[in-house]
Write a structure and sequence with these properties.
Keywords: Membrane, Transmembrane, Transmembrane helix. With 101 residues, this protein is mostly helical.
């Protein structure tokens, strides 16, 4: 009688361990799938950041180029205004001479 109970309990324990093993297999598969997804997403994220960095480098270069052009144009504009002011000074002197004459 005791052996029959022990045998049944043992069989139940074995079935329980089989169920536990199946559950752990499912969990392991789920973890593997999740990690595969996370790894792929991470790789995509890294690629995206590389693209963003390249775009920012292009934008920074464009800004630097634009500022260089604006700075040169500004310097040319200042020189042009200096010439205009000098020309007006000459014109004013000429008018002064004509008016005094």
């Amino acid at each position: 009688m005791a052996w029959a109970i022990v045998t049944k309990a043992w069989a139940i324990g074995v079935k329980a361990w089989v169920i536990v093993a199946k559950v752990w297999a499912i969990v392991a598969k789920a973890w593997a799938t999740a990690w595969a997804i996370v790894t792929k997403a991470w790789a995509i994220g890294v690629k995206a950041w590389v693209i963003v960095a390249k775009v920012w480098a292009i934008v920074a270069k464009a800004w630097a180029t634009a500022w260089a052009i604006v700075t040169k144009a500004w310097a040319i504009g200042v020189k042009a205004w200096v010439i205009v002011v000098k020309a007006w000074a000459i014109v004013a002197k000429a008018w002064a001479i004509v008016g005094a004459g």
